[in-house]
Design a protein that fits this description.
The longest helix is centred in the C-terminal third of the chain and has 18 residues. A hairpin with a 2-residue loop joins strand 15 and strand 16. Helix 4 packs across helix 15. The protein is α/β, with parallel strands linked by helices. The strands form five sheets. The protein has an eight-stranded mixed beta sheet with strand order 19-20-21-6-3-4-5-22. Helix content is 27%, strand content 18%. The chain is globular.
Length: 499
């Protein structure tokens, strides 16, 4: 059975000899389910998927205990109305360079999952020489600084990327920022192609009064802080003596933040949470976290595994705030809203101190209107239908999404917060024509949606476009050699870290 850490990168699908893991990358519903599922009717218990899984998410069904038994139930439900003999897709043969063609030198900007999948695909399917460049002094991107510290299994995919960093045809320069230490033109002059995998690191603003007050912080900054991001100081979150915190948004990141805030610090001490963040949580008085969702349970953005994890945090009660619309939605036919049927529905008075114990309150159909306070946040004014209320809180975390930021030397679409592209090829907005040798992958390519594993399929598409361009002679000729590039780095950025 596939459990919570599933990253959806489909390594297990390729390893299965009986085609019993779905949705596969070539199937219409791939990327739309919360995890992949093993068909218990056709699985032959060979264990090939267990060996292939990079995050140890696959375990024998008879080893599941306690809350994890629900994963077996979900898998059975997924295959309830599906055939036992799914059609095999056509063999997928990666595009390759013509015999005798020179292997390209490719620079990949970034070291997160999208960058690493791109490098893996290039090294595996071509003889390319790959140069990874990252502005941070350590690799990993959002895998290192965006995954919650108590999701230790999910972070294990970094072990396979660590092996990538030792590949003989790969070089890596850390602590080097394109646009500050080097221009895009200089990077392109030393490589046949440049692939940008820079993600979407900026937070979407709330756009309400009081957002700038101390005690108000974006989830991107909050998550980076508890993961020890080198650019986020340990005191980035003002300490609060308030017993209540508010998280705005109801996606997976919002649930991660709520779980970390509400969890007993002794539980978090067994994770890889940053010491300064753990010490701050030990000194805080937060006992209740209110998670605000603008729409109802049927439109919640979190996945089932994340909600399941929230239901089973030791020492923390999960409740849904009572409201007629919420009761109607949960009792209705919508599958996502029905996930809350086993969660207590209770009235919640948030104008005074919370009740004894630790709890997380899911509050739907509620929109923030203003953060109230003079020297720092003291409350959140919200609207629920025609009613306006005030929630007393000393910490507000905005988790309403990420935004890409402009990349120096490339076009940028402000509406989508992405670099204009066609299948990964960066395009000129005026003409629609591709810019030779320039590509994007990951969130800066498709927008901030999808998890770690979605980047593998995304990377395959971009690499396929790059290899096609190389095969057809459409890549520019590199001018500088690898030694020239190394000298340029040393001259422009003496503090660069070379691997």
């Amino acid at each position: 059975m596939i459990t919570q850490p599933c990253c959806n990168d489909a390594s297990c699908v390729a390893a299965c000899p009986v085609n019993c893991i779905h949705p596969a990358p070539d199937e219409p519903d791939f990327g739309t389910t919360d995890t992949l599922y093993i068909d218990p009717r056709t699985c032959i218990d060979c264990g090939a998927c267990t060996d292939a899984c990079p995050v140890d998410a696959i375990v024998p069904a008879d080893a599941l205990t306690g809350p994890d038994i629900a994963y077996a139930e979900r898998s059975t439900q997924f295959y309830a109305d599906r055939t036992t003999e799914p059609a095999w897709g056509a063999p997928e043969i990666p595009r390759s360079l013509p015999w005798g063609a020179a292997a390209p030198h490719v620079a990949v900007v970034g070291t997160g999952p999208a960058a690493c999948y791109t490098a893996q695909e290039l090294l595996r399917t071509t003889g390319a020489e790959v140069t990874l460049v990252d502005r941070l002094p350590v690799p990993g991107g959002l895998l290192r600084f965006g995954v919650a510290p108590d999701h230790t299994s999910t972070k294990r995919i970094g072990e396979s990327f660590a092996a990538l960093f030792r590949h003989p045809r790969l070089r890596m320069y850390l602590n080097v920022e394109i646009g500050e230490h080097l221009t895009h033109a200089e990077l392109a002059a030393h490589h046949h192609a440049v692939v940008y995998a820079v993600g979407a690191a900026a937070a979407r603003p709330l756009g309400i009064p009081g957002e700038e007050l101390p005690g108000s912080i974006s989830a991107t900054r909050f998550v980076a802080r508890y993961n020890g991001h080198p650019e986020v100081p340990g005191d980035a979150v003002d300490p609060t003596r308030s017993q209540r915190a508010v998280v705005i948004g109801n996606g997976n990141v919002a649930l991660d933040v709520a779980r970390i805030l509400a969890s007993p610090p002794d539980r978090l001490a067994r994770t890889d949470i940053a010491d300064h963040a753990l010490n701050a949580l030990r000194g805080a008085d937060v006992r209740e976290v209110v998670v605000l969702g603008r729409r109802g349970p049927a439109h919640a953005a979190y996945t089932w595994p994340e909600l399941h994890a929230l239901k089973n945090v030791p020492g923390v009660r999960l409740v849904v705030e009572d409201h007629p619309q919420v009761r109607a939605a949960i009792a209705g036919d919508d599958e996502r809203a029905a996930l809350l049927r086993d969660v207590p529905i209770e009235p919640a008075n948030q104008a005074g101190p919370p009740p004894p114990g630790r709890r997380i309150v899911l509050r739907f159909f509620t929109s923030p209107r203003e953060l109230v306070g003079e020297d720092r946040v003291r409350a959140v004014r919200v609207a629920q239908g025609d009613t306006q209320q005030q929630i007393d809180a000393g910490l507000v975390v905005s988790a309403i999404g990420y935004r890409g930021t402009p990349v120096a030397g490339l076009p940028f679409d402000d509406a989508t917060s992405t670099v204009p592209n066609d299948g990964g090829r960066v395009t000129d907005p005026a003409t629609g024509h591709p810019r030779p040798g320039t590509y994007v992958v990951g969130w800066i390519k498709r927008g901030p949606s999808g998890g770690i594993g979605d980047n593998r399929v995304c990377a395959r598409e971009t690499v396929d476009a790059l290899v096609q361009d190389a095969a057809e002679g459409r890549l520019p000729s590199a001018v500088g050699t690898a030694r020239d590039f190394d000298r340029l780095i040393r001259r422009r950025r003496p503090k660069a870290l070379n691997h």
